[in-house]
Amino acid sequence: MAGSTSFLWAGAGLIGLISVAPSIDHAVTPDAPADAPAGGYAIDRAPDGQFYVDGRIGNARVRFLVDPDADKVLIAGPDAERIGLPAGSANVTLDSLTVGPTRQQAVAAQIAPSMPVSLLGRAYLSRLAVVEVSGDRLTLR
């Protein structure tokens, strides 16, 4: 019985680690951009194979999964609640969204209550001159 209890606790710990993985700091933050050519902003690939970046919606820091193939900017439910955005699946226009040195205004987004992490898609990325993946680095300019 003690062996099965230990197994359950180990499994619960692993599930907990997986559920917080997006919040582990694998990416550069808006206050400390990595070196990138010609004023760009470089993001290193996280161990899970994704690119994460801390950005700002207004003055609130938000962790984003960067997905150049996604159409929208999605704001995770907990982030939306913390920032004071509408609850539920609502379409919103963000006054400002900043990643690294780049600030965009009037960015269309959608509240996604069930998302564990906010997503940075083409609604923001298409406004940039360059979105380029080279090896394990994503460069935004």
Describe this structure in a few short sentences.
With 141 residues, the protein is an alpha+beta fold. The protein has helices spanning 2-20, 77-83, 122-125, and strands at 41-44, 51-57, 60-66, 74-76, 91-99, 102-112, 118-120, 131-134, 137-140. It has a single domain, classed as Acid Proteases (Cathepsin D, subunit A, domain 1, Beta Barrel).
Summarize this structure as a short list of keywords or feature phrases:
141 residues; alpha+beta; Cathepsin D, subunit A, domain 1; three-stranded antiparallel sheet; 21% helix
Note down, in words, how this protein is organized.
- This protein is an alpha+beta fold and 141 residues long.
- 21% of the residues lie in helices and 37% in strands.
- It has one domain (25-140): Beta Barrel (Cathepsin D, subunit A, domain 1).
- The strands form 2 sheets. It has a 6-stranded mixed beta sheet with strand order 4-6-5-2-3-7. It has a 3-stranded antiparallel beta sheet with strand order 1-9-8, with no helix packed on it.
Give the overall form.
globular
Going across the major beta sheet, what is the strand order?
4-6-5-2-3-7
If helices are DSSP runs of H or I spanning 4 or more residues, what is the number of helices? 3
Major β-sheet profile: 6 strands, mixed
